[in-house]
Amino acid sequence: MTLSSKERAALRAEAHHLAPLVHVGHQGFTDALVQTLDDTLRTHELVKVALAKTTDVKPKDAAHEVAEKLGADVVQTIGRTCTFYRENPDLKRKKGSPPPWRA
């Protein structure tokens, strides 16, 4: 699923207040880290990822590569922070409750 520019803008606004939940170290996106991000996306849908200064990969390239692996969308990449979104239709939602990343 590709996000429209309006959806992407709304998610960018939502992500502004989020703290990074996943931190990428100097080893980059290892299999274990990709699994962690996958689990985090499953429970939160909108996830900020911080890349360490010692990471050898370019943030934009890494973000798009990982998003493709996980079936997620890259909402934005600013500096060394990437934001991913993947809707989870199985996530239980109550009518009128906040989205999972705000809970």
Q: What are its keywords?
A:
about 100 residues, alpha+beta, Translation Initiation Factor IF3, 4-stranded mixed sheet, about 20% strand, globular
Write the layout of secondary structure elements.
Layout: H1 5-15, E1 22-24, H2 31-44, E2 46-51, H3 59-70, E3 73-78, E4 81-85
Parallel strand pairs: 1-2
Antiparallel strand pairs: 2-4, 3-4
Task: Describe the structure concisely.
With 103 residues, the chain is of the alpha+beta class.
User: So, the CATH homologous superfamily?
Assistant: YhbY-like
Number of self-contained structural domains:
1
Order of neighbouring strands in the sheet with most strands? 1-2-4-3
Helix content: 25-40%
* Topology pattern, helix = H, strand = E: HEHEHEE
- Counting DSSP H or I runs of 4 or more residues, the number of helices is 3
Shape, principal axes of CA atoms: globular
